[in-house]
Amino acid sequence: MKSLGSIRRSFAPWNDPQARPYISFQNVTKRFGDFTAVNDLSLDIYEREFFALLGASGCGKSTLLRMLAGFETPTSGRILLDGQDLAGIPPYKRPVNMMFQSYALFPHMTVEANIAFGLKQDGMPKAQIAERVAEMLKLVRLEQFAKRKPHQLSGGQRQRVALARSVAKRPKVLLLDEPLGALDKKLREATQFELMDLQQDLGLTFVVVTHDQEEAMTMADRIAIMDKGKVMQVATPAEIYEAPSSRFVADFVGSVNMLEGTVTSRNGNSVVIKGNSGAQISVENAGDAAPGADVAFAIRPEKIRVTSKRPETAANAMEGEVWDIAYLGDMTVYHIKLGDGQVVKASALNSARVSEDPLTWSDRAWISFAPDAGVVLTR
Amino acid sequence: MSQASAVTRPASEASASHGPGGTVLSAILSRLVIVVPYLWLLVFFLAPFAIVFKISLSETAISMPPYFPVFSWEDGLSGFWENVKELSFANYLWLVDDPLYFNAYISSVVIAAISTFLALLVGYPMAYAMARAPSSIRMVLLMLVILPFWTSFLIRVYAWIGILKPEGLLNQFLMWAGVIDSPLQIMNTHTAIYIGIVYSYLPFMVLPLYATLEKMDFSLIEAAQDLGCPPISAFWKITFPLSLPGVVAGCLLVFIPAVGEFVIPDLLGGSQTLMIGKTLWNEFFGNRDWPVASAVAVVLLLILVVPMMFFQRAQARSQEQER
Q1: What is the percent of chain B where pLDDT is above 90?
Q2: CATH superfamily, region B98-322
Q3: Where are the domains of chain B?
Q4: pTM of the predicted model as reported, rounded to 2 decimal places
């Protein structure tokens, strides 16, 4: 497979067999009564990594974070931090700090006192505390708000106080529980980049829990997709998007077309799939799909071309009817209904103001894609 | 919401913005709504207080009613002014002259303060446990706190005599368990009064504490622990300061009735306990000296109202600062 990792910076300790994981979940299970929140999960996170736990609510991602912080104890399994087993260490003795989803700012203390709280617990000398607090306030650009109480701040300012408070102690690991969940869209986007810069500047390991895939894709070095207490895939954002390992991951991240079918023949790394609609699909990068296997061919909408006539050169082409058109400005999404009734989404970038090949509702249209445009999923 | 805003707005403006007719009526109605509680206070609090205050300025007399002068509608306006001239502050001077009253006030305040503190010590853990209990059993626990109110207060205090007297339940149990050899003298001591007051007024302490603790975001405690604060220290730095409004409300609700408490010191405290409630009772029914008794009541009210007003001012000011 072609390398997808080089899209981001070249930081990739997970590919280095010599690298020792910094945080290590080993066969961790957590049950609440009958409910299994985390199910025999193993996961390695490396130093200075920006790691995202992504999943729908109730998938166990927050429980995982709370176990790392020490608020929950694993029912079985071990959690190691820098080689040390965290079992039995109470939250107030762990070298990790957490930024809470609700921010959990102390309402009866000023911004300054909130940030200084953790430092005072450590018995840091007063002068040093003042210095560190000033430094933190500068970092989050809240210098003139030092004497305010939390309820006198806006949501974005509170978020930054919470962030300053959680990094003030220079923890080995910063845990962020839906850090941007309470912010509006514009502010969220700006803050994502601030968080990435902060992580780079301080050289900390960040573990962030989120249900927002765009947030995870933007910020994280690697993403763990979670479902029902299990990790479905751990990979870089580009790998997750372009090479999902299962139907669940492909469907969970971004928009995808799933064409179900059976592998009819395999030649080296290429396979031919006979789709349920009868169409033949030839694919490179077939993974472990063997002839006879029931598979799904997953292809993203932007990898599909829509034309009014059958393209002459395309390896794969299918005919259908324009069922719906959504014009979004920067691009147009076509819903093409194939012969067997399946609707395929295809998006086209509106790089020209007037399309050369205009399509409208109920037109006959052809969708086409390259052999390496999608992936074959056996799971 | 619209009613409340209509009240603060002049009627003319309200009618201008909504057209005539209906809005004028609704403005009048919403004002009436405000009038009701004021009327209630006037009839059931201010008027009786005015009567008590007037009696406190009167002179004791052997007659029906046992004081002089007596206002009457037949006297007319001139007779009213004649009567007003008869009123004096002599009873208040009498209270200052006799150290009995001063001692009774002091002793009442001290006993009430100690009882309030003990009620806080007992009530806080209860309220805390209730607030942190699973929400399914919170209602049951709340019910249990309120349940004793369904039995007569007097009977419950009498029941304590049965428990605390020398041959009572408590002493019998302690002697059976071998903790003590001879019965403890608890009845007719201050200890018995503390027990009685704490027992009787505990719900007034627990309920406001529960209300503030239940509202508290417990992720604050987690945040404190996450920042390196052990649980006990987190309690004093986060939970307790945030529950202060409930602490103050609970303490006032226990302290105020406890200062004027009569039944508990009379039944459990024995004859030698000096409390202002008992003194008041003796003046009224022992001496039949209504004017002095009324003066005692008015001074008691002042003792309680003045610090409360200061407290409310301070609280209003701190709330304004936070806004």
Answers
A1: 37
A2: MetI-like (1.10.3720.10)
A3: 2-95, 98-322
A4: 0.77
